[in-house]
Amino acid sequence: MGTIEGTRLVRTWRNAALGRAHPAARIFVVVMFVAFAAPFVPLVVASFSFRWHWPDLAPTQWLWDVRGTTPFPVGWDYLFSPASQLGAAFANTVAIGVVVAIVALIVGVPAAHVLARYDFRGKGLAEFFLLLPIIVPQISIGIGMLLLFMRLGLFRTYPGIVLAHLVPALPYAVRILTAVFQNLDPGYEEAARTLGANRLARLRHVTLPLIARGMATAGLFAFLISSNIFLLTFLMSGGRIATLPTMLFSHIESGGPLDATTAGLVLIVSLPGLFFLLIADRASELSLTVKPPPDGRRMESSP
Amino acid sequence: MSSITLTGITKSYDGPPVVRDLNLHVETGTVFGLLGPSGCGKTTTLKMIAGLLEPDAGDIRFDGASVRTVPPERRRIGMVFQQPLLFPHMNVEQNVGFGLRMQGVRPGDALPRVRECLAMVQLERFARRYPHQLSGGQQQRVALARAVVTDPVVLLLDEPLSNLDTGLREQMRRLIRQVQERLGITTIFVTHDQDEASELSDCMAVMLDGSLAQTGRPIELFMRPETVAVARFLGSTNLLSGRLRAPGLLETLIGPLATSCTDPAEPGRPVTASIRWEHLTIAGKPAEPAGSGRATNSFRAVIRDVVFGPGRIRYTVEVDGVPLVAATPIEHEYRRGETIEVRIAPQRVRVLPGEDRPD
Ligand SMILES: Nc1ncnc2c1ncn2[C@@H]1O[C@H](COP(=O)(O)OP(=O)(O)OP(=O)(O)O)[C@@H](O)[C@H]1O
Ligand SMILES: [Mg+2]
C-alpha cells in the first residue's frame, strides 16, 4: 500500500544516504527522490516570486523586492495574516481527518476481521461495495449524498463532511485491515483461548496489540485521503466550512497565473502528507525498539 | 486431573470427514501418544478436545462429564501447538504468566509460579527476552511452560518437539515426562516420531485416515500390530504378501515360510507376513550348495546394501529378487555382494490378514 511503501521509501532513502545500500539501489533511490522532489522546486521558487513570466528561467521580481509597496500583503505574508483564514482551514482539515481516521478504524477493524476470517453469504457483495467508491466517480456519490444530507440536516455540518469523507476513506481502511487480519495467524487467538482469555481479553491483550501497526497504517491512510478530498467537502460544506483543499481551489478558481499565494498554499496542502509519512516512519521504528541481538537469534545454546 | 473420553467423534471441514467415528480413552494422569502420518487428523482431534473446533458428531467427556458446551477458555486445558505461537509483544515472563493474568492473579503474586515453570523448562535466565530473541527450541519450551502454568487438568501437546535437534529432543522428552509426572496431568501427545511416542506414552494409538487403527501399550503395538496398515506405518519390518497354505505354513514370494502364528486358520486366505528387521538374522555363509535340504525358514540371500546406524547395522538383502531388511548388532560386517544365509524364527513371523498394498 502507498503509505507502507512510502515509509519504506523514507527508510530506504535514509539507508542509501548513510551508504548502507547497494550502489544500484542508491542510484535508484536518488532518481526516485529527485523525481518526487522536482515538482516542488518551482513551487518553492514561485511562492517567493512576485513576477515570473515565461520564458524567464528565474523570477524577474521577488517578493522581498516589493514587500510593503503592495496595497495588501501577498504570498507568505498574506497566508500568515489573519485575513487568509489559513489557520481555520488547517485546523478543519486536521480535525476532520482525525475524526475520519478514528471512525474508519472503529468501523473498519470489526468489518475487516469478519471479511478476513469468515465466509458468509453476501461476502462477494460486501467486497464489491467496498470497491464501489473507487469505481464510481466522486461527483455522482457527492451529488447523491448532497440530496440525502440536505434532507437529514447534515448539509453544511461537520458530521456531514466526516460522513462524506468516510465514503472513500473507509473502503481503503477496510482493505488494509483485511490484509492485516489475513496475515495474522489465528493461532495466537486460539492459544490465548486455551489460556483462559475470553473474547474481550483476547481482543485487548492479543489481537489489538498485534494489529496495532496495521491500524496505524490504515488510520493514516484514512487521514491522508480525507485531507486530500476537495469535491465532497466542497459540496457538503456549502462554502461554510473550509479545508485546505477547498481553500486552495478557491484560489485557483480566481484564475490568472500561479501567484505566490497559491504556490505557498499548494506547499502547505502537501504538508500533512509529508508530515505523516515521517511520523509513520518513526512510529514503525519505535515499535521495533526490541532489537534482536546483533549476532542473530541463537545467543546461547541452553540449557 | 481428569480422564478423557471421546466417543464417535466425527469432523469434516468442507469435504469428506477428516476425523471419523473416533473413540479414545485416556486414564487419569497418564500420557497417551497419538502417532500418525501427516494429515491423518491429529491436530483436528486435539483442537476438538481443546474446544477450538466443534465436532460434527460424538461426545467429549472429562471425568465422565461432557464438555461439549464448555468453551475452551473454561475447559482447564493446557495446549502446546505445532508452532510455539508465543505472543510476540510479550516477553518470556509475560507469555508464561498470561494464563494466570487471565485468572486475575496479580503480577506480583504470579511471579513465583512463573519462575517455577520457567525453571522447569530451564529457561529462568531468559525471562526478559522476547520471543524473536529465542531459538525455535527455546520458544517451544516457553510454550510448554506457558501451557502448564495454570495447573490444567488436561495437557495437549501437538508435536512440541518437531523443531528440535536430536540432542535437545531427548532432553525435552525427559523434561516433558518430568513435568507430566510432577504435575500428574492427563496428557495427549501427538507425534510423527515413534521413539518419542514409545518413550513418552503409557498408552499409544496409531491414527490412520481419521480414526484410531490400533491402541495399546507401545511395546504391544510394535510387537503385535493387528493390520498391515499399522505394521507398515510403524515400519522397521519386512512385509511379505502371501497365502496361508496350511495352519502354520505360508506360501510367500520368497518361498514357504513356517510360522507359529495360527490366527487366520483358513487356508487359501491372502495374508501378509510381517518380520521385524531385527528378527531377520544373518547366519553367515551358506553351508551347503544351493537347493540342497535347507533348514526351516532359511534362505539364501545376497547383500545389496549396508548402512551403519547407532547400535546396529542395517543390511538390505535380496532373497529370490525380493529385497528384505535385516538389522543386526554391530559385530561382523558383511560386504556388499556377499552371498549369505538368512533365517527367521517361526515365532517371529507375524501373520496379518489381507495383502500388503503399498500406496
Ligand atoms: N482449516 C481447515 N480447512 C480445511 N481442511 C483442513 C483444515 N485444517 C486441516 N484440514 C485438513 O484436515 C486433514 C487433517 O488435518 P490435521 O491438521 O488434523 O492433520 P495432522 O494429522 O495434524 O497432520 P500433521 O501431522 O501434518 O500436522 C488434512 O487433510 C487437512 O488438509
Ligand atoms: Mg498437525
Radius of gyration of chain B: 25 Å
Low-confidence segments of chain A, given as residue ranges, are 286-303
Order of helices and strands of chain B: EEEHEEEHHHEHEHEEHHEEEEEEEEEE
Total count of helical runs of at least 4 residues of chain B: 8
Kindly report the greatest chain-chain contact and the residue count on each side.
A-B, 27 and 37 residues
Overall pLDDT level of chain B:
89
Number of domains of chain A: 2
Helix coverage percent of chain A: over 70%
CATH class descriptor of the largest domain in chain A: Mainly Alpha
Gap between N and C termini of chain B: 41 Å
The percentage helix of chain B is 10-25%
CATH topology of the largest domain in chain A, by name, is MetI-like fold
Our estimate of the beta-strand percent of chain A is under 5%
Notes on the structure:
The complex is a heterodimer of chains A (303) and B (359). By secondary structure, chain A is mainly α. Chain A has two domains: 23-71, no CATH class; 84-284, MetI-like fold, CATH 1.10.3720.10. Helix content of chain A is 71%, strand content 2%. In chain A, strands 1-2 form a two-stranded antiparallel sheet. Chain A is globular and about 75 Å long. Mean pLDDT of chain A is 82; it is low at 286-303. Chain B is an alpha+beta fold. In chain B, 24% of the residues lie in helices and 35% in strands. Chain B contains eight helices and 20 strands. In chain B, β9 and β10 (211-216) form a beta hairpin. In chain B, α2 packs across α3 (107-120), α2 (92-102) packs parallel to α4 and α3 (107-120) packs across α4 (136-148). The longest helix of chain B has 18 residues, at 166-183. The radius of gyration of chain B is 25 Å and the shape is elongated. The model of chain B has no long low-confidence stretch (mean pLDDT 89). Classes of the chains: A mainly alpha (303), B alpha+beta (359). The interface between A and B is medium-sized, with 27 and 37 residues. The complex binds adenosine-5'-triphosphate and magnesium ion.
